[in-house]
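[job 4471] stage=fold_predict status=RUNNING
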Amino acid sequence: MALDSYVTHNPSSPIHLVSDGGDDLADLAKKFHCSYVREAFNVGRARKADATANQFIWLQRIYRACQTTFAEVDWIVLLESDVECLRSPAHPPRYSLAGGRNGPAWTPPLRTLLAEKFGQRVRNGGLGMNYIGCGGSIFHKERFIHCLERTDLAVFEEAQQLDLRILGWTDATICFLFQFNGWDTGDWEDYGRHDDPDRERRAFVHGSKRFYNKPLVL
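[job 4471] inference complete, writing structure tokens
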């Protein structure tokens, strides 16, 4: 559903598909003309023995895709299996990472770290107060590359001591990457939740679980 709806409304956009330590999705990639990688292990919250909770590895996977599949694009949408595309995006993002209006709040110690780093630039709903970046969000490719090349794993491990979600949730990981490097994050008019009353106005809606635990049909 996620791939079919995306391709329907964005037929010329490149897609990078990753099997995250799961089934071989080569046939799915062929059907939708995706570049494809089958990773050996899952980047998750250590739900199983072959998983790792280190989401920094996930950022490195995106980095490689930015240099190959997405070499000619400026913005990248984070598709997840519960993201549905309803139309082509109509609103240019106003932030380096854009999606939901307000995500979960950072812990007070992490907010203090970012406040000390940026002072008055730390504000509610933007830089340093909360995180966004779940499925359906969009980010600027070149700013992402710039941030990752100047931010190594040690920075994330130090921040992890202040907020355990930094290397445990992908949305927290990528949002911290942008915010730590001084890039604002915020809402995007083309992003919504699948149960929003005005969902039809959005390009991407997140949270549709109706196909979960059903067999893959090509």
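[job 4471] summary: The chain has one domain: 2-206.
[job 4471] exit 0
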